[in-house]
Amino acid sequence: MGFEYFYGFVGGDASQWQPNLYRNTTAIYPFQGKPGWNLTTAMADEAIQYMKELKEIAPDKPFLVYYVPGGTHAPHHPTPEWIKKISDMHLFDQGWNKIRETIFANQKRMGIMPANAQLTPWPKELPEWDSLGWEEKKLFIRQADVFGAYLAYTDHEIGRVIQRSKTWVNSTTPSSSTSPATMARARKACSTERRTSSPPSTAFPCRSRTSSSGTRSGGPTEPSRTSPHPGRGR
Fold first, then answer.
1. Pairing outcome for strands 213-218 and 64-68
2. Beta bridge mates, 213
3. pLDDT (tens digit per residue) in 126-154
4. Which helix (H) or strand (E) segment is 64 a member of?
5. 8 Å CB contact between 154 and 40
6. Which residues, at least 6 apart from 61, have a Cβ–Cβ distance to it below 8 Å?
7. Mean pLDDT computed over 51-72
8. Which of 41, 66, 176, 200 could form a disulfide with 216 if both were Cys (CB 3.0 to 4.6 A apart)?
9. In whole angstroms, what is the distance from residue 178 CA to residue 175 CA?
10. Which residues of 158-189 are buried (b: 16+ CB within 10 A; e: fewer)?
């Protein structure tokens, strides 16, 4: 594949707490004895450290780091701290019918949707929020909170990589990125008018919808002279 170094998991649906983790072709277990360890943070740390090493060894040589976190693919494994942050916002407490209407109205107001766009009818196959019992509502709110937390957590770690990559901005240029307000706009679109605080997020780096996740690095102008990445996953 042309990459000189690989750090990541092999196979789909990888746990972020105890992943099937490889460094190049060697299985590693950095989570053993570390209950709070999470791959989302570890992968960002690895990408940052590897860029630092590359620039220390050959400061004038261009490089490519292909950084692809697992979020928000299942399983959803944010840290408890991030789940609490999102749960405390109560973004999903009104249920999916109301949230759907609020998101659509906010998207129209923000110019994302045309002003004359019409919301499609609610599918008959799906239950209305008010038809659910309290226990069902608690379950679905919890699931939405965890997914939102995983997205915000992943976004935060991606932002960390981008911020550190700016240290080497002359030779590290993300192929695509969004502004630091991306997650703030997303939150604004799915929240009510009375919530105005921004989530703890920054920006998205050069990401691609690929079938495997990890950090792969190498010089873009020359083929790999060491071990290739161990394989593709899902």
1. antiparallel
2. 9
3. 999 999 999 999 999 999 999 999 999 99
4. strand 64-68
5. yes
6. 54, 171, 219
7. 89
8. 66
9. 11
10. bbbbbebbeeeeeebebeebeeeebbbebbbb
Chain CA centroid to CA 12, Å: 15
Helix then strand then coil, % of the chain, to nearest 5: 35, 10, 55
pLDDT higher than 90, residue 199: no
- Per residue in 63-113, pLDDT (tens digit) is 888 999 999 999 999 999 999 999 999 999 999 999 999 999 999 999 999
Query: What is the 3-state secondary structure of 124-159?
Result: CCCCCHHHCCHHHHHHHHHHHHHHHHHHHHHHHHHH
- For helices 96-109 and 182-189, angle between their N-to-C axes, nearest 10 degrees: 120
What is the residue type of 215?
T
Predicted model pTM: 0.71
Pairing state between β 26-27 and 64-68 = unpaired
